[in-house]
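ERR on first pass: missing label on line 2. Operator R.T. fixed the label and resubmitted. Corrected input:
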Amino acid sequence: MPLATIGTDIQKAANLLREGELVAIPTETVYGLAGNALDTQAVTKIFEAKNRPSFNPLIVHCANLEVVDRYVEHIPLMARKAAAHFWPGPLTILLPKKPIIHDLVTAGSELVAIRIPSHPLTNSLLEEIDSPVAAPSANPFGYISPTNAHHVADQLGDKIKYILDGGNTLVGIESTIIGFDEQGRGVVYRHGGISKEALEEVLGPVCSVKLKGKKPDAPGMLKSHYAPQTSFVLGDLDELLPKFPHTKIGVISFGRLISTIPANQQVMLSPKGSMAEAARNLFAAMRKLDSLKLQTIIAEPLPEEGLGRAINDRLRRAAADKN
Ligand code: TXA
Ligand code: MG
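pass 2 clean. output:
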C-alpha cells in the first residue's frame, strides 16, 4: 500500500472516514488513529492497524456535548460538571453507553470513554462528518504516542491513507481518564493532560486506580506501555550515571545537562522547570533518543504533583519490564 499523504484537507479526511477508512487526526494531546465509531468494520481496522489487543477499549471523540447524548444513557451530575468545565479539552469521561456503541469499541464494557477534543482541524472534521470517531493514539500498540504528523507517518504510514496535519500537539501527553463511583466521586483511571489538582478544584477529592503487578486493573492499562525499543531506566541520574558507559547512553532530565554525556544524547524536558513544557516535549524526547540506537536511555522522574504525575506514569511504563 502506498504511503499516507500528509495534509490539511478536512473534506478529504471527512470523505475517507465516511467511506470507512482510517485517518490520523491531530488533537491537543497526541495524534489519534480515527475511524467512524459507529462502523464496526472501521473499528476493526483500527485494532488491526495498531496491532492492538481487542480487550483494550477505544475512546470515542465527539464534536460537542449535544451529540454525546446520542451515545450515552445519561450523564451523571458530577460527570456533567466535569464536562462543562473541561470540554473541549484533555479529559475523557467514562459514561454508560447506549446500544448504538458496539461492544467492540468498549471491549465489552457497559461504559464508553467519551472525549470532546480541542483542536481546530479535528473539531471542524467532527462537525463535518456528523458521527463520532473512535481514536486510540496513532502508534503501534505499546510504543510511544505521536505528537506530530511525521511521528505517525514513520510508524503507521503504510497502514493509512491520510494524516491530517495539525502541527505539534500542545499538551503532549494523553487525556486524563475519569470515571465516577455510585456516590459521584471521581476515579482517575489514567493521569493525563488535566492534573489531579485541577480536577479536584472542580469535583472535590478524587481517587486514582492503582497500577498493581502486570495485569491491568482497568482494561488497557498495561504496565509496559509508551516504551522505546532502547532499554529504558528510570531513577536518580546521579546514582544511575556511574552504572553505564557514557558514550552509549541517552539522558532525559527535567532541566539539567550532564557534562560527561554528548549533548546530542541528552534532552532537557524543560530547562525553565515548567511541567506543561515537559509534557509537551516528553514523547518527542523519547523518540529522538530511541532513534540514536544507544545502549540505554536513563531518565529522572519529575516531582509527583500536577502534570508530573502523568509524566512519571509514562516514564514508569516506558521503563517497565515488557514481558
Ligand atoms: O488523549 C487521548 O486520550 C488520545 C487522543 C487520540 O484522544 N487517545 C488515547 O487513546 O490515548 P488510547 O487508546 O491510546 O488510550 C485509551 C485508554 C486505553 O488505555 C483504554 O484502556 C482506556 O482509554 N479506555 C477506553 N475505553 C475505556 C472504557 N470503556 N473503560 C475503561 N478504560 C477505557
Ligand atoms: Mg495509546
